[in-house]
Structures are given as structure tokens and as C-alpha cells.
Amino acid sequence: MYGNDFPGADEGSATGLLDQVEAAEADLRAAAVRGLAASGSPGADSDLQEYFDAVIGADQKIEPRDWMPDSYRKTLIRQIAQHAHSEIIGMQPEGNWISRAPSLKRKAILLAKVQDEAGHGLYLYAAAETLGVTRDELVDLLFEGRQKYSSIFNYPTLTWADVGAIGWLVDGAAIVNQVPLCRCSYGPYARAMIRVCKEESFHQRQGYEILHTLSHGTPAQKAMAQDAIDRWWYPSLAMFGPPDADSTHSAQSMAWKIKRFSNDELRQRFVDMCVQQAEILGLGLPDPELRWNEQRQAHDFTQPDYTELMRVISGDGPCNRQRMDHRRRAHAEGAWVREAAAAYAAKQAARAEVAA
Ligand code: 3HC
């Protein structure tokens, strides 16, 4: 057993997370072949809403060309854009350690990881664009404070062990949240998530391996690893969002099969997964109430501070200001790259037209 290669309980199966991603990939292929033969396709007289409901009911994919309710489209744009922004802003806390990684090997691995996050942002912005918005519009909404990014990236990375804790806990939480999104009802989002999850799995392992190395090193290294886990544990639990009773969107998103599990269900799954992994690391989780509940067949644990989550989401976390300032600056400094790429694309298109 290593990292997330543990027997899980997703949808009753005893497979690892990567196996679940494979299964989602197979589902997508099967759905493409199957079509919607049973429900027929909407003709001029068909009720579009009925057809949409039938597609969702039959566990098929909604594709960009399909009719969809406006509120479904808006929910997807909100969630996918927030997810894309999170991937891009999420490059900052770890990017902070690229120049200070303890060895060339660690530096190369971290560089590759941070680059992967940029790629994830790209796939996700592209998935959002299939819903009729442009990437520029989404970036503007972020800058105007009208779209969010994940609370977790507003915490500072104080030591090298934080890079390990982010990999193990933050990427671990991201995987638990995102593997079910491989089965999301919107095709482009589901397909993007398959690749994202495969890469996140590597990220999670590299973090786990950093912590494993530190926890088997000197007493000072072990203490540094423990300190990082102590600081990242509750913010990682908060990543799953408010408790179900306070979640605005969960019920509707689950009915549309955008979300497959509620915030609390996924948080519980994450806790259950981490307990065993922490034992193997030889490190503790900072919760005196954490214990196995035989009756529930799950761990009891202390909930994160949701008042703090709301404060961080609304812009008052330890690093919100710094993260947004940095993002705005990087965007402005990258203007010439976007202009050059657009000019090059226009030139290529003009050449292709002449040749045709
Ligand atoms: N950070 C910031 N905002 C959050 C949040 C968090 N951790 N959790 C919830 N919220 C916001 C919601 O966006 C919503 O605000 P809005 O109505 O203004 O949009 C509000 O709090 C209420 O929450 P809900 O539970 O009703 O919202 P959702 O149903 O959308 O569930 C979610 C929240 C579970 C985060 C869901 O949107 C989701 O699964 N998103 C996709 C995954 C994602 O975005 N992950 C972000 C991390 S990416 C990452 O980790 C990168 C990796 O490299 C580490």
C-alpha cells in the first residue's frame, strides 16, 4: 500500500482510485457507443427538458451541442471556472519552493508538478469555454472578485515539509473530490477530470514520499513534517466545502449528476483514507477526537472551523491578498505572450486560407 493505492469503498467497489478513474474512462467510451437509443432523440416536437432529463437519468453525457437548462450551464461554468482558477492560483504556494528545493531531483519533480497544475488549469478553462464563455471573461470575473478559487491556496508554505503536506493532504483531498467528477454528467468536464486525476495521483505520491523521507530522517526533520501536517490538516478538510446542511448547490448538483457525492460524504472518505496513511508515515493527525466508530464503520473526527472557511472564501485568509496581487501581476506581464500567440495564430490561419 502506498499513497492513495488503498482499497477504497467508492460505490461499493474494493478498487483503488486509479482503478476508479479507469472505470470512468470505460463508462465514457461505453456511453459514446450506446447513444440514447432508448430515449430517442429530440425532434421538432420533443420536449427538450424531457430529453435532457432522460440523458441524465440514463447516466449519459451532456455534450456542448446539446440543449441544457440555463441553470445547469451556469452551475457548470461556476464550478469549472472556480476549479480552473484554483489550479492556476494553486501554483503559487509550491512555486515558492522551486528555487529552494533541497536537491536537484526534488527541484525537477516540483517543477514538473507545478507545470502540471498549469496544464490542469488549461484543460479546465477549455472545458468551461465549451459552455459559451471565453477564458478572458472568466479571468476578468476572478479579478473582479465575482468568481472564487479554493480556500486552501490562501495558506502560506512555511517550510519544505509543507510541499510534502500539500502533496499528501491537499492533492489527496483533491483526488477524493475529483475522482467522482470523472463521472460528471457534462462530457468535457468528465473527460478533463480523467487526465487531471491521473496526474494528481502522481502529485499525491510525491508529497507522501517527501513526508516519508522526512519522518524517517533526523528528529528535526520528523518534527518539521509533523508541524506541516498539523497546519494543513484542518484547511484540507475544509476544502470539501461547507457541511451538507449549509451547502447551497449540492442537492441540485447531485440531481444533475455533476456532483456524485455530498461534501460531507467526501470529507469522511478522506479522513478514513488518511488515518491509515498517517500510521504508515509514523506521523499523527492533529485531532484528539479521531477514532474508529464501529457502528458507523467510519472514523469520528473534529470538523474544521467553518467560520474560518467562510472568512477565507470571502477574501480574509492569511494570503488572499498576496495570491490575487501575484495573479494580477503575472497576467499583466504575460500580455505580450498572449498578443504574440494571437498574432501567430492569425498569420497561420491567413496562410491556410491562401493555400486552400
Ligand atoms: N473554497 C472556496 N469556495 C468554496 C469552497 C472552498 N473550499 N467550498 C465551497 N465553496 C463555495 C462554493 O463555490 C459556493 O460559493 P458560490 O455559490 O459563490 O459559488 C459556496 O462556497 C457554497 O458551497 P457549496 O457546497 O454549495 O458549493 P459546491 O456545490 O460547488 O461544492 C466544491 C464546492 C466541493 C468545492 C465543488 O465546487 C467542487 O467539487 N468543485 C470542483 C473541485 C474544485 O474546484 N477543487 C478546488 C481545488 S483544486 C485543487 O485542489 C488543485 C490541486 O492541484 C490541488
Walk me through the structure.
The protein has 356 residues and is mostly helical. It has a single domain (5-33, 43-325), classed as Ferritin, core subunit, four-helix bundle (Ferritin, Up-down Bundle), CATH 1.20.1260. The protein has helices spanning 17-34, 48-57, 70-89, 91-95, 104-129, 135-143, 160-178, 187-215, 219-238, 250-255, 263-281, 306-316, 320-333, 335-355; strands spanning 291-293, 298-300. The protein has a two-stranded antiparallel ribbon with strand order 1-2. A hairpin with a 4-residue loop joins strand 1 (291-293) and strand 2 (298-300). The N and C termini lie far apart (57 Å). 37% of the residues are buried. The model is unreliable at 1-14 (pLDDT under 50). The site of 3-hydroxybutanoyl-coenzyme A (3HC) has 29 residues, from helix 3, helix 7 and helix 10.
Compact description:
Its EC number is 1.14.13.149. The chain has helices at residues 17-34, 48-57, 70-89, 91-95, 104-129, 135-143, 160-178, 187-215, 219-238, 250-255, 263-281, 306-316, 320-333, 335-355; strands at residues 291-293, 298-300.
